[in-house]
Amino acid sequence: MTFVSDAAIARLRGLEDHPDFAGTRYDVLDEIGRGGMGIVFRGRDRELGREVAIKVTAWSTAAEADRLRREARTLAALEHPGIVPVHDVGRLPDGRVFTVMMLVRGERLDVCAARLPLHDRLRLFDRICDAMSFAHARGVIHRDLKPANIMIGPFGQVLVLDWGLARPGSDPGAAHSGSDPDVVPGVAHPGSDPGLTPATIHGGTDGYMAPEQVRGTVDARSDVYALGAILDGLSGESASRLLRPLRSVVDRARRADPGARYQTVADLAADVRRFLDGAAVTAHKETVLERTRRVARTYRTPIALVLAYLAMRGLLLFWRP
Amino acid sequence: MTQGGFPATRPSVVRDLGSADPARRAAAHEALARSYWRPVYVYVRLRWRRSPEDAQDLTQEFFTRAFERDYLSRYDPGKARFRTFVRTCLDGFLANEDKAAGRLKRGGGLTIAGVDFARFDADLAAHARSDEPDPERWFYLEWVRGLFADAVDLLRARCDAEGHGPAFTLFVRYDVEEPVDGARPTYATLAQETGLRVTDVTNQLAWARRAFRDIVLTLLRDVCASDEEFRAEARDLLGVDAS
Q: Which residues touch A23 (CB under 8 Å, ≥6 apart)?
């Protein structure tokens, strides 16, 4: 019968909490977040003298650790201003894998968006879509997109982070060979076999997780669904007729059937940009009245000028000095 | 029903407490008693200030009474965690026992086999604090102590059976035992002591910690009434998402 002292209880409870970074070039400073996939620490890279974010994944077998390292390498290849860069990956003495990333300073998308007008919120959304489109083009699906995983930097930079649930394609390099940047090659292509994603592991977050993800299958359209949920939050609660096309965009992105959604993030982003530019969106069938209103709104300056001109001509017609 | 002298892994013994099958119900109560005797005993000893002999009798009596009167099966997961319910039942039992002092026939019925109360009492006096003012917290710490102690014993049994003796020795040395001079041994010291390479020490410790964690989660699942409670307890205990 073993007796476990108070000190041993603290150690055993903290096995997960206090990774041993001795022998690496990093010092752990403090914990900045935790989730199902592990714990994120603020750390310091002694070699380069800069602060970094260090994610220590949950316990893993040797095979899982190898897979995590392969995935980290894939993510490291995603060099895009909207994707948090991976600097390093390694294994701790206790067997856990750690990933070193840029320490993102800023605020969460939902916090930042709360004080922005709709137009600016949709521009931010467009940049999120740009980053996701880039990742999909390289065969990487995020699988856990939500406002908490999107940071807005002090200069308005959009950074998609927490790629812990992401699944890379079989050959990320092959993605570059495609001529169509919106085509997601390998496992991430709509309708293709998700391959590396185990059928029993769905991850994700309720409210943002596509129905097929709950069932254990994902492809790039699962991220489209999550982006639809994010767009829903960014659109606000307004029931204005002017926002009906935007509602239709949200609805199409969040269809339960992946085949009925936008097939790529680029398609979704294009419709949002159409809305921003005052053009008709593909997700919404306009009535004549709606079209008239939209055109009037979009071309209100030239229309106003023409009307002013006509009014002036009318006045001149009847004016007798 | 047992593995290495401990409750077998099942979806939850809590669910079996109210089973219509008498054998299953008895086994669930026995398993629960073996999981909870430590927090119950310490609670009676320190919170209710009873002598070791009295606390031992009352601990046995509490589980016997719970079995005979079936009050643990009245647990409602919507109201509290199961361990909170056990402590509340224990408080009620001890208050009633105070009123009816001497009336109880102690120590009969359900027995908790293989338990050395005297040795546990001595270890407790030597290695545990007793300055936790919150009784709920106190009960929780003793419950964790029991869970980890069972997990260490099960890990030893597994390591013996599977030839992982060195991994268990390293785990106990590095994570369980108190350092003699106040400082924990380094991996290099352990390598020197055991004749292993430092990388082997690293790998053996990694294996043992993973195995320990899996055993703790298995034991934990056994004494939680629902998946939701299990996940919440796992998060509190190890900071992990056990979904």
A: A93
- Contact across the interface for A4 and B115, Cβ inside 8 Å: no
Same-domain pairing of A64 and A177 = no
Q: Answer yes or no: do A280 and A303 share one domain.
A: no
pLDDT of residue B240: 65
Which of B6, B176, B197 to mutate to test binding with chain A, by most A CBs within 10 Å of its CB? B176
CB spacing of A15 vs B202 below 8 angstroms: no
**What does the mean pLDDT of chain B come to?**
80
With CB atoms and an 8 Å threshold, state whether A5 touches B178.
yes
The number of C-alpha atoms within 13 Å of A52 and in the hemisphere containing its C-beta is 23
Contact at CB, A9 and B144, closer than 8 angstroms: yes
Task: Nearest by CB to B175, from A3, A8, A39: name it.
Answer: A8
Place of tokens 């977050």: A205
Q: What is the pLDDT of residues A198-231, one digit of tens each?
A: 222 345 677 899 999 888 888 999 999 999 999 9
CB contacts < 8 A, A to B, total 89
> Same structural domain for residues A157 and A246?
yes
pLDDT of residue A72: 81
Question: For A146-159, how does the pLDDT look when each residue is reduced to its tens digit (9 = 90+)?
Answer: 998 899 988 889 99
Residues A277 and A295 in one domain: no
Rounded to 5 degrees, what are φ and ψ at A28?
-85, 130
Pick from A9, A39, A95: CB nearest B206: A95
Contacts of B210 in chain A (CB under 8 A): 59, 61, 95
**Rounded to a whole number, what is the distance in Å from the CA of B81 to chain A's nearest CA?**
19
- Amino acid found at B140: Y
Supply the range of the domain harboring residue A182: 104-285
Q: Is A274 helix (H, G, I), strand (E, B) or coil?
A: helix
| Tokens 């000028």 sit on residue | A305
Instruction: Look at chain A and report how many structural domains it folds into.
Output: 3
DSSP A95: S
Bridge partners for A52 per DSSP: A43, A102
Instruction: Give the A-side interface with B, CB within 8 Å.
Output: 1-9, 11-13, 15-17, 34-37, 39, 58-59, 61, 93-96
β-partners of residue A31 are: A41
A146, A164 contact by CB (below 8 A): no
Q: Residue B74 carries which DSSP code?
A: G
Work out the mean pLDDT of chain A and round it to a whole number.
80
Pick from A12, A13, A94: which is nearest to B205 by CB?
A: A94
Residue A182: closest CA among A264, A249, A126, A252? A264
One domain for residues A237 and A305: no
Q: pLDDT tens digits for B179-201?
A: 777 777 877 888 888 898 877 88
Write down the pTM of the prediction: 0.53
Given a contact cutoff of 8 angstroms between Cβ atoms, the answer to whether B55 and B107 are in contact is: no
Least confident of A298-302, B64-68, B119-123: B119-123
Measured in angstroms, the CA of A41 and the nearest CA of chain B are apart by 14
Name the token pair of B125: 């006096």
